[in-house]
Amino acid sequence: MNKNKLALFLLLLSLVFIFSLTTTAQNLKIHFIDVGQGDSILIEEAGGQNILVDGGDRADRITARIINYLRDQNLKKLDYLISTHPHADHIGGLVDIIDSFKVGTVLDSGKVHTSKTYENYLIKIDQENINFETPRRGDKFKIGESELHFLHPDQNLDDYDLNNSSLVFLLKFGQQNFLFTGDIEAEVERKLLAENPELKVDLIKVPHHGSSTSSFAGWIKSIQPETAVIQVGENHYGHPAAEVIALYQEQGARVFRNDLNGNIVVTADGRNYTVKIDQSADNSKSGTKTSTETENTSAEKINSESKNKADKGSNLININTASAAVLDQLWGIGPATAKKIINYRQKNGLFSQIEEIKKVDGIDDGKFGRWYDKITVK
């Protein structure tokens, strides 16, 4: 072979190689990492970029689990880190995660919290000089082969408590829509329905760990998700609520949960997707589920599991008789607020309905939403 023919052959070989790289379709992978009672989601974008949505709780073992999981995927860099809102079960591990991986850009709700966890998170971003942005409704980010369309919040951030200030975004890949919702509640779901009446999704990350304060029936019926994933672990809140699971199943959605299924991995090609879980609800190993298959666990069994969990947490706290020590068991209620509750009922009489507790100074919708199903007046 003469030099000219060899050069031509090498050129053609190079072109074939380059063409094969550009035409071989890559898959999108979404990992709903089992972090117990919290959120952490890895998105491996089809173009090769990596996005982490939230960083689980602040417990060292949870943070180590996330970091080890990311390393198991051979990650060296997080191109985007999305912090949906500043509750500790969503940002608790982010400082250590930023220490462990190079982070390109942080997308944050912009909602300020007074916790030390949130303060440390902001300090770390500043120390590492990481690009920091606060997306708002209508903002779009083209990331490789995907687009992130932000649906919430709008510019009026002060109108929302911490949960309802969560970043809500649609991950669009090919013909598919994957919806990520943070911890929004029914108030924001109604707003989203009004603003996006034609929206349909293939998959939804169920808001607020399956709390009954979220998953407003009209919205779920409208968006018609095929698959619903609940990031949840052992908790005393009663999450996920049995009625919420039933609602999704009544709309034909398959429901997957980290507490029953372990890590949940969705692999998509832009038209179809599969769901792979570590274990089925009966703890037996389970293989890949396609978008048209049905989860092995029956609807009846899932509802039974949820009901049993709810029943275990059914020892309601009577806010008319509970001592300060008992009231202090409620999320966000310290000794000072517990004393305010007792003083309020001594001055104004017993509460006639649980919603009246929001009249006590220091108790807002966010706190009430955390434990409204844990209290009673009888």
Q: Could you characterize what this model shows?
A:
This protein is an alpha/beta fold and 378 residues long. The chain folds into two domains: 287 residues, Ribonuclease Z/Hydroxyacylglutathione hydrolase-like (Metallo-beta-lactamase, Chain A), CATH 3.60.15.10; 60 residues, AF1531-like domain (DNA polymerase, domain 1, Orthogonal Bundle). It is 33% helix and 21% strand. The chain contains 13 helices and 18 strands. The strands form three sheets. Strands 6-5-4-3-2-1-14-15-16 form a nine-stranded mixed β-sheet, covered by helices on one side. Strand 11, helix 7 and strand 12 form a beta-alpha-beta unit. Helix 6 crosses helix 7. It is globular. It starts with a helix and ends with a strand. About 11% of the residues have low confidence.
